[in-house]
Amino acid sequence: MHAFYASLRNELARLAAQPKTRWFLAASLLLPLGLSLLSSRLQGGGGLSALLSGDPYLALLGGYTAFVLPLFLFMTAADQFPGEREEGTMVLTLLRPVSRAKIYGAKVAAAAVYTGLQLLLLAVVSLLCSLLLPGSAPAVLDPLSFFQAAVAAWAAMLAVGAVGAALVQLTGRATTGLALCLVLYGALKLLPLLLPGLSVWSLFSYTGWHALWLGDGVPAVRLWNLSLLLLAYSIIAYTGGLAIFNKKSF
């Protein structure tokens, strides 16, 4: 396990040094603040407050998990696998006395850590704004539900990240890997509009996973079945990506 944690520290440091990571973290701080400021300015006049029609945090979290975090995960995976292969750093990583399974796990875990950090910042800043910012739209959720929604959203993003890590390895360039992920993600997000029956089986239909866990609107049996489905997709994507990584020549 020491080798895994050492690899994880290296991957976390590598991601922290990338401007992309810092920009996404800054967005998770500034977006809820900006939304709260706009909401307070437009309060009482319809506009944004009417558009949100509910808790501002849930509206922001829904957009974040549908667009921002998948983009972050796909960009990160493209940099971690074909990107490092192009730069020649992957060969140096594989020269360490660490198994490929631990290296792969550390890369996926590092992306998951920064995804969770963004969701945590989003929840904390949104909660503080709803409590402290004068004139901001009041929160519908209690404080505990802010973090419950963040954890549920993180679980869905783990599955998306596992799929991205597997897909980018099918290409030889970071830009091609990113394009493949974005095209497939967009197609599968739009497919249920044409064939609604497929939405139940599409992993990318559950980027708003957090909404199912709030309130009592969804039966416990359905939540359990959907949780197992999400877990199955995550395991299949992770093991598939690991198999590709083990056999790939760098």
TrEMBL record:
The keyword Transmembrane applies. One of its GO terms (cellular component) is plasma membrane. The chain crosses the membrane at residues 21-38, 58-78, 108-133, 145-168, 180-204, 224-245. Coiled coil: none annotated. Keywords: Membrane, Transmembrane, Transmembrane helix. The keyword Transmembrane helix applies. GO terms for molecular function: ABC-type transporter activity. Pfam families: ABC2_membrane_2. This is Uncharacterized protein. It comes from Paenibacillus mucilaginosus (strain KNP414).
